[in-house]
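Exercise 7. Given the encoded structure of a 128-residue chain, write a plausible sequence.
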């Protein structure tokens, strides 16, 4: 196993780096074979960007508990309808939420169970 040496970066934190310049070809080949293509990596990065907004996370959490209409989401989050509608549009475009119409009311819900799991895993991580 290569030895490691600590170096100081600009913020004075110690960063562990390999002091030996060895390429572990088997590891490299295995990881390269498992890596998604560039297009999928880009899609995944875009997916996680959606989770980088407090309002969207609040909307998603609410929808993980119950299907809701825009008016209910506005009341829950104490936000204007235009702001909630804008976020819902982004979430729909990203295929994270779906909607159904019942008369004049549009109800929103999570697109699938994966989104609920991502939220729960994220919460578990920050609570550890």
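Solution.
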């Amino acid at each position: 196993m290569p030895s490691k040496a600590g170096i100081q970066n600009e913020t004075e934190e110690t960063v562990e780096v390999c002091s030996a310049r060895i390429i572990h070809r088997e590891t490299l080949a295995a990881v390269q074979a498992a890596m998604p293509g560039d297009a999928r990596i880009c899609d995944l990065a875009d997916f996680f960007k959606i989770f980088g907004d407090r309002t969207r996370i609040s909307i998603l959490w609410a929808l993980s508990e119950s299907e809701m209409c825009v008016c209910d989401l506005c009341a829950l989050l104490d936000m204007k309808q235009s702001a909630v509608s804008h976020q819902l549009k982004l979430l729909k475009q990203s295929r994270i939420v779906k909607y159904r119409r019942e008369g004049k009311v549009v109800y929103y819900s999570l697109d699938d169970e994966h989104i609920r799991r991502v939220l729960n895993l994220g919460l578990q991580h920050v609570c550890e």
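Remark. The chain has a mean pLDDT of 90. Students should compare their own answers with the one above.
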